TrEMBL record:
Family per record: Belongs to the FMP46 family.
Subcellular location: Mitochondrion
Coarse class of the protein's main subcellular location: mitochondrion
Name this polypeptide is given: Thioredoxin-like protein
UniProt entry keywords in alphabetical sequence: Mitochondrion, Oxidoreductase, Transit peptide
Species: Choiromyces venosus 120613-1
């Protein structure tokens, strides 16, 4: 009998290598991938690369569109966010996006900022296992 293996959950970290907070979240994710009984695929996207407009739409659906300013400071709408990111290149600071930003695409969740507790809760609630 054939068994179909569940694909790994894909987590994307929009990461700022120069940020101590972002480095800490990346270290937490790397340590968790070996310490937990749950597996996930980690995709690290370094600044200045930003989410595509489609990815940004999904992220805002996950966290709530009313929180767009938490992802892209200064943005009041999804359109503002897309425009600011394309103009500024997503680099951090004014007009850039907040990093770290962890996205769980398979389960429709995201953690904005360096809340290590929220990241650990997301990891603990990943479905499936090794």
């Amino acid at each position: 009998m054939f068994r179909f293996h569940k694909t790994l959950d894909v987590l994307t970290l929009f990461h700022a290598p120069a940020s101590a907070a972002s480095k800490r979240i990346l270290e937490t994710l790397r340590a968790s991938s070996t310490a937990h009984k749950k597996s996930f695929e980690l995709d690290v996207v370094e600044a200045p690369t930003v989410p595509t407009p489609t990815q940004l739409t999904s992220i805002l659906e996950f966290i709530g569109r009313n929180r767009v300013g938490e992802v892209v400071p200064g943005a009041r709408s999804e359109g503002d966010a897309v425009k600011l990111l394309s103009e500024m290149g997503g680099g951090g600071g004014e007009g850039g996006m907040v990093r770290p930003l962890l996205v769980d695409w398979n389960n429709g969740r995201a953690v904005v900022g360096a809340d290590e507790g929220a990241v650990l809760r997301l990891l603990e609630t990943l479905p499936g296992g090794k």
